[in-house]
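Human: For the file, kindly provide a plain-text protein record giving the amino acid sequence and the backbone structure tokens, at your earliest convenience.
Assistant:
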Amino acid sequence: MTVEEFEAFYVQAVGRLTGQLYVMLGDLQEAEDVVQEAFIKGWNRRRQLDRDAGPEAWVRKVAWRLAVSRWRFRHRTAEAWGRRAAPPDMPGPGPEHVVLVEALRTLPAQQRRTIALHYLCDLTVEQISGETGLSASTVKTHLGRGRAALADRLRDNVQEAPGA
């Protein structure tokens, strides 16, 4: 991949990948950071990315692994929990956003990741299996259980809403 091709790839994919990682991680700043770091790693490997069938999948996978590594580091560092305050001067999310994010957060991490890869990244079961290392049947199980759990949680929230 030439410099110009990589720059075009970056412009075309950075927003989409950041959004996908945001859904998987639940933290926009973290998603932006790991996607940028993954693109930096991709820059150093741009000639190999050209031979790979899916440079976007490669960047997404690297960003996910970076996020996991960073989480593990922060988890071991007690002082990091004190810095998890919300950024100042940010408008609050709408009620429908809060309900969806809360419902997604109740899912186990692997189900949430599988749901995001399937519905947000538009990956097939086979592609998710290749990216995550899970068997196709495990991916299908995560999708089915995740959809059922989200449906129950979102239905409960609609029934609890005033005027529903």
About this structure: The first helix runs from residue 3 to 25. DSSP finds eight helices and no strands in the chain. Residues 1-90 form one domain.
